[in-house]
């Protein structure tokens, strides 16, 4: 059941458009329109949306005041449709995103921003330069950020750099930079130098600071206290030096690792700080180390050099002040970006260059304080009393590279740690795995158990002294007088000392070696993950990156995957597919012969229509459109096609570059120059792949963008060079949702070229009665046809834009010029004023048409999503695209299926959102049925149910033949997976589609529980038109409410907040830069690699580390319990029978290596089996490898084995004359062999390294015992030669054999019975592997 789109139908040209939304009565009178798809449910609340013109609406939401046009168009409202369920007639949809973001800012912060407008003096526009307006159009508002920069501190109360104003709560006191006068600039020494430091430690601070950080682990503090107690002579159980060894090894190893990492940072910092830059000193530029560059100095950057600090451009090698930079070191984007120097500042520097020594460069820059917003800058330059506004396009940031520009000169405004790149260099939040949290819980339990054992020892000591009080005078070690005096402290004192001594003796109950073992195991696991050739991406030449080594095991427990769409599920390589021009639909030809010539030596074909410049990458052309271009320019259709292609070629920020062959035979790129007459191969560089695709499409039809400067644009129109004077530009922002360009055509006409989102541009279209344009008579029909084409494009998953144009009269142009000049002359209110200027001309547009751009799915995306679904992983898509596009992509990537019941929620206010969610829950969310139970907390529990169509229970699977068991087990997994996702009352899977406007209200505290209940009951959730902070909010909601493991994956800067909020963040090395990679825990090249990362490496890593933790608890506890049983027969004395060095080396050498090797290399199933049966992944979701039940079962097994360890030798030698050290020798070798064989019995995949580790540890233990027994110092002489004496008896070897058999027999029987009668899915799959050989 595929999604069908009802086109948005406007009124006819002769219809009377309503000035206000229809009342509830009018709505009720309208006939209902049935849904076009029975599988779709459109939740349309009956309440009427509130117009933005309503004062109460404006006041309650505190929208920023936008200058509105006086034209009647601003009052026109399109009728409401049942499908869209939006208030098209209000500005609420436009402002919801802004409201959501600004809502994050506190009231005090808003007040501080409102008061900040007085922080800058008024700026007067220079009237002496005709180029002022033209050169200042690029000074974008610093108050409105790109969405990509809004995730720096989600949820932070102190610094909300993700707010609408970009840099959060910041001080608006002016920073005054005196150009070429660093001494005066920094006369108060308040500005930092240009030295940067990314290292954490210095030589002096390394030891104290590193120890302070390490002792944040409670276990380390515990062992430090034990170590201090052991230094007291009365409490010394171990030797003073021997007791230092475990904690010292852990601290030293961690310190060495941290020190090495920090040494690498120091080395990188030193290299960075010692790079040289050209600084203006004594009328010439001379080299100077970066670390010595000061704020206020003039810096000259040569081509292909890196910018040493944040500079305000003053002059470039281009006469128009243009410079091209590459920000790959800043945000990973390789496309060229255009920056500009003010023509006035360039003139001052040029005069100083012509008169060296006679013309002093004097001026100042007044700007905002340093902040993290890399996309914003607010300030102005002052020369000769004239103030020139500065914006982000006048600034080049540290880390950028100068490209295609011979040189550029700027003044340093931010240096060192105050540069924007350094302010943004803080790493992602520290994440700890769920297993570590569970370890802390078990450590607390074991600590309590340890205290009970120690209390029992102390109490037992007191009772024993009470019972033998009359014998204490003559007993050794308890003598009270004379030669036998040993410092007896009384019954209470001795009990306290016994308690503390037991605490020291039993200290290894808490396995301190576990922490270092887990670090080493994770490092080894990461090595094999990185070396997995199946996750190597040839196109980007990237392997998997493990950027966080402490959450490997979390990959095996993921329940929710939150994915971006563009660049994550799709390739983000845009291909122009469709063009809707004046009601006609054109599409790319499928005939390869119709492809535009994309090679240098290929002759010009018919499709090029006389083009003398060719794009490097063209598109397939439509013959019908080519024929239209050959018609007379006087025809209406030809005129509309001309304006359409002109808008595609001009209305963008793309930089045309040409490819030329150097003398050395290499290809070199340089900025294209229209003065070159020969045929050139043009390549377009731009920040947006969409814009590059549009420009390439226009070039393929003969409208080739040749040159772009701050003053004009040169376009080769069908072989004729045409120059368009650039009068101004209004770049895209999230409020207007469109971009407009004001140009003066060669014939003198002034035109406004507009492209943007359909939801924004269609509101600006003028119908026939509102325009005198020749095309106005057909606007209503064109609008209807364009809407139909937009629906068709969206249903195919294409990205759409609407294109419009308007001719300005002299009075309209003069009015806009006044507003535009006023906006550029302002600093603090520039954003609002620019919007007012844009709205003055972005209305009464002639609708030219629309575009359809295909963003193809990545390879393997549908298969990966299907596999993840079979693994009981819910995939949610969070995208900024249109709802129709997202739904179409959902079907394409197998996220949505025809049998799903779609719940579509589009609400414009909070009450509508509440009603829609409530109605959906009541209609479709089944509270309880025979398969599953849904609870408000989001937890879903499977009951012991009968399989559909089969009378047998799940527990009877093991009695059937293997293949039949596997088939039934697979069916049970699928059934359980569907139950986990939820069904409607009609037994259909549910899919929730909700837009950003609805989420703006649904994420409020009083609605979030309702949203969570509905969303988690659905198999699929798609969120459309969402902002970056909304993505993080959704992830946070699921984390808090469900307590399940979450994973977020994305490729763009707008995914950073989502990636950092999730338990596991995965970044893709895509087309949108590396910000997502830098903020992620794991990075890879393709979405399809996610199934190997989770189903194979995640499953194995979780199982390995889960077993490792249980084994370490068992390994230490079995020895402690052995020592405890011994104290019961030694008057509760804590003096052990095992030597001090053996106790210390037990967890360091005797048993440490095997568990690490197994945690790295063991595997229960092959990768092929894990991919073949995705349902096996649920073993991690159900905590089958580590849980509280498994912990207590392990402790019960530990109790049994410790009893066997103690009593077998005790019963054997209790009537003999064997000494304490001899029986201790039996115990230590027995426990080492026992725990290693215990491990060997659980290993499921043996390698030669595993054999070497297990059996080698036993051999190493014997070697150490022999070496220790040969020591002849005073402390070791008492057990000299013990091993040689006791090992020569038959009882020694018989006891070791009996201990192993009796201790491991119950565990062996339980494992055998479980696998025979109650096998898990993993057991059955493993049996299949074994049978197949």
Automatic annotation (TrEMBL):
ATP binds at residues 564-566, 691, 732, 755, 799, 879-881, 1025, 1031, 1054-1055. It catalyses: ATP + H2O + phospholipidSide 1 = ADP + phosphate + phospholipidSide 2. Residues 13-55 are annotated as: Disordered. Its cofactor is Mg(2+). It is a multi-pass membrane protein. Residues 274-338 form the P-type ATPase A domain. It is found in: Endomembrane system; Membrane. Residues 27-38 have a biased composition (Low complexity). The chain crosses the membrane at residues 238-256, 443-465, 496-516, 1113-1132, 1138-1161, 1189-1208, 1220-1240, 1252-1272, 1292-1310. Residues 13-26, 39-51 have a biased composition (Polar residues). Residues 177-243 form the P-type ATPase N-terminal domain. This is Phospholipid-transporting ATPase. The lineage of its organism: Eukaryota, Viridiplantae, Streptophyta, Embryophyta, Tracheophyta.
């Amino acid at each position: 059941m595929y999604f069908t789109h009802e086109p948005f139908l406007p009124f006819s040209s002769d219809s009377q458009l309503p000035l206000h939304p229809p009342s509830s009565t009018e709505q009720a009178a309208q006939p209902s329109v049935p849904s076009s798809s029975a599988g779709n449910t459109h939740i349309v609340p009956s309440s009427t949306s509130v117009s933005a013109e309503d004062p109460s609406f404006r006041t309650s939401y505190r929208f920023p005041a936008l200058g509105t046009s006086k034209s009647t168009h601003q009052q026109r409202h399109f009728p409401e449709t049942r499908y869209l369920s939006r208030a098209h007639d209000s500005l609420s949809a436009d402002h919801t995103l802004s409201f959501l973001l600004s809502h994050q800012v506190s009231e005090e912060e808003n007040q501080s921003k409102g008061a900040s407008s007085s922080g800058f003096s008024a700026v007067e526009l220079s009237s002496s330069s005709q180029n002022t307006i033209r050169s200042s159009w690029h000074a974008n508002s610093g108050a409105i950020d790109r969405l990509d920069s809004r995730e720096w501190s989600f949820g932070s109360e102190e610094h909300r750099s993700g707010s609408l104003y970009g840099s959060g709560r910041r001080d608006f006191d002016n920073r005054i930079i005196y150009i070429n006068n660093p001494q005066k600039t920094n006369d108060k020494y308040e500005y930092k130098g240009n030295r940067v430091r990314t290292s954490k430690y210095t030589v002096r601070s390394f030891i104290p600071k590193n120890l302070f950080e390490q002792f944040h682990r409670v276990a380390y503090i515990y062992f430090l206290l034990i170590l201090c107690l052991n230094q007291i002579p009365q409490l010394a159980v171990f030797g003073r030096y021997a007791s230092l060894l475990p904690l010292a090894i852990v601290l030293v190893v961690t310190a060495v690792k941290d020190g090495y990492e920090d040494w690498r940072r120091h080395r990188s910092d030193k290299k960075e700080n010692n790079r040289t830059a050209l600084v203006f000193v004594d009328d010439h530029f001379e080299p100077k180390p970066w670390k010595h560059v000061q704020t206020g100095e003039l810096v000259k950057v040569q081509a292909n050099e890196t910018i040493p600090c944040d500079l305000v451009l003053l002059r470039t090698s281009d006469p128009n002040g243009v410079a091209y930079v590459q920000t790959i070191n800043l945000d990973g984007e390789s496309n060229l970006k255009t920056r500009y120097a003010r023509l006035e500042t360039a003139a001052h520097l040029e005069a100083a260059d012509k008169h060296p020594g006679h013309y002093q460069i004097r001026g100042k820059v007044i700007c905002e304080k340093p902040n993290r917003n890399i996309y914003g800058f607010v300030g102005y330059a002052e020369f000769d009393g004239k103030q020139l506004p500065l914006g982000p396009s006048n600034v080049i940031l540290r880390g950028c590279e100068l490209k295609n520009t011979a040189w550029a000169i700027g003044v340093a405004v931010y240096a060192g740690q105050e540069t924007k790149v350094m302010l943004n260099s803080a790493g992602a939040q520290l994440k700890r795995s769920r297993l570590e949290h569970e370890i802390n819980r078990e450590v607390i339990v074991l600590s309590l158990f340890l205290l009970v054992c120690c209390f029992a020892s102390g109490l037992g000591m007191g009772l024993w002294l009470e019972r033998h009080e009359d014998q204490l005078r003559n007993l050794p070690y308890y003598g009270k007088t004379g030669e036998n005096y040993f410092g007896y402290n009384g019954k209470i004192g001795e009990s306290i000392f016994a308690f503390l001594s037991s605490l020291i003796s039993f200290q290894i109950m808490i396995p301190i070696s576990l922490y270092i073992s887990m670090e080493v195991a994770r490092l080894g696991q990461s090595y094999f993950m990185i070396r997995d050739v199946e996750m190597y991406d040839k196109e980007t030449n990237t392997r998997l990156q493990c950027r966080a080594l402490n959450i490997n095991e979390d990959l095996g427990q993921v329940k929710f995957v939150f994915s971006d769409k563009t660049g994550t599920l799709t390739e983000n390589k845009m291909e122009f597919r469709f063009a809707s021009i004046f009601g006609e639909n054109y599409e790319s030809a499928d005939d390869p012969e119709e492809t535009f010539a994309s090679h240098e030596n290929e002759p010009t074909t018919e499709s090029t229509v006389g083009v003398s410049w060719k794009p490097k990458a063209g598109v397939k052309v439509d013959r019908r459109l080519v024929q239209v271009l050959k018609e007379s320019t006087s025809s209406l259709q030809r005129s509309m096609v001309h304006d359409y292609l002109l808008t595609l070629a001009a209305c963008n920020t793309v930089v045309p570059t040409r490819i030329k062959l150097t003398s050395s035979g290499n290809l070199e790129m340089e900025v294209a120059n229209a003065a070159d007459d020969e045929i050139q191969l043009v390549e377009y560089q731009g920040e947006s792949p969409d814009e590059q695709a549009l420009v390439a499409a226009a070039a393929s039809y003969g409208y080739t963008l040749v040159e772009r400067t701050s003053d004009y644009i040169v376009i080769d129109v069908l072989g004729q060079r045409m120059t368009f004077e650039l009068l101004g530009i209004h770049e895209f922002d999230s409020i207007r949702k469109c971009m407009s360009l004001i140009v003066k055509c060669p014939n003198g006409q002034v035109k406004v070229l507009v492209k943007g989102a359909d939801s924004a541009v269609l509101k600006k279209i003028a119908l026939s009665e509102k325009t005198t344009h020749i095309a106005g008579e057909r606007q209503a029909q064109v609008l209807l046809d364009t809407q139909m084409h937009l629906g068709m494009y969206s249903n195919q998953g294409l990205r759409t834009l609407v294109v419009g144009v308007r001719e300005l009269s002299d009075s309209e142009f003069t009015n806009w010029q006044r507003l535009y000049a006023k906006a550029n002359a302002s600093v603090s209110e520039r954003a609002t004023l620019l919007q007012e200027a844009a709205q003055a001309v972005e209305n009464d547009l002639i609708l030219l048409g629309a575009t359809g751009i295909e963003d193809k799915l990545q390879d393997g995306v549908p298969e990966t999503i299907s596999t993840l679904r079979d693994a009981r992983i819910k995939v949610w898509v969070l995208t900024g695209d249109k709802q129709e596009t997202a739904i179409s992509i959902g079907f394409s990537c197998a996220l949505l299926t025809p049998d799903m019941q779609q719940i579509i929620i589009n609400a414009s206010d909070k009450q509508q959102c509440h009603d829609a969610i409530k109605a959906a829950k009541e209609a479709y969310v089944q509270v309880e049925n025979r398969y599953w139970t849904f609870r408000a907390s989001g937890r879903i529990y499977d009951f012991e149910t009968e399989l559909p169509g089969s009378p047998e229970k799940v527990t009877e699977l093991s009695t059937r033949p293997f293949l039949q068991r596997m088939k039934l087990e697979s069916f049970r997994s699928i059934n359980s997976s569907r139950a986990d996702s939820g069904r409607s009352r009609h037994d259909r899977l549910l899919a929730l589609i909700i837009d950003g406007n609805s989420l703006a209200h649904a994420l409020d505290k009083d609605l979030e529980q309702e949203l969570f209940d509905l969303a988690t009951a659905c198999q699929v959730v798609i969120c459309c038109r969402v902002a970056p902070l909304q993505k993080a909010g959704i992830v946070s909601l699921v984390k808090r409410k469900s307590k399940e493991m979450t994973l977020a994956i994305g490729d763009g800067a707008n995914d950073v907040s989502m990636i950092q909020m999730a338990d596991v963040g995965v970044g893709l090395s895509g087309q949108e830069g590396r910000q997502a990679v830098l903020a992620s825990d794991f990075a890879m090249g393709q979405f399809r690699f996610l199934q190997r990362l989770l189903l194979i490496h995640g499953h194995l890593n979780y199982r390995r580390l889960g077993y490792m933790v249980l084994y370490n608890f068992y390994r230490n506890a079995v020895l402690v319990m052995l020592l405890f049983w011994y104290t019961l027969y030694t008057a509760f004395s804590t003096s052990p029978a095992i030597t001090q060095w053996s106790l210390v080396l037990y967890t360091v050498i005797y048993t440490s290596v095997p568990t690490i090797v197994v945690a790295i290399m063991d595997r229960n199933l092959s990768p092929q089996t894990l991919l073949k049966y995705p349902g096996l992944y649920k073993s991690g979701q159900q905590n089958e490898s580590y849980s509280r039940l498994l912990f207590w079962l392990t402790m019960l097994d530990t109790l049994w084995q410790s009893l066997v360890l103690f009593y077998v030798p005790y019963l054997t030698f209790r009537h003999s004359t064997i000494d304490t050290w001899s029986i201790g020798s039996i115990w230590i070798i027995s426990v080492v062999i026992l725990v290693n064989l215990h491990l060997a019995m659980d290993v499921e995949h043996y390698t030669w390294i595993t054999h070497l580790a297990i059996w080698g540890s036993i051999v190493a233990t014997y070697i150490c015992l022999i070496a220790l027994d040969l020591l002849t110092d005073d402390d070791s002489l008492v057990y000299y030669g013990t091993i040689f004496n006791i090992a020569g008896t038959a009882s020694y070897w018989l006891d070791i054999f009996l201990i192993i058999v009796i201790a491991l027999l119950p565990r062996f029987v339980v494992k055998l019975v479980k696998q025979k009668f109650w096998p898990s899915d993993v057991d059955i799959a493993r049996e299949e592997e074994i049978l197949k050989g």
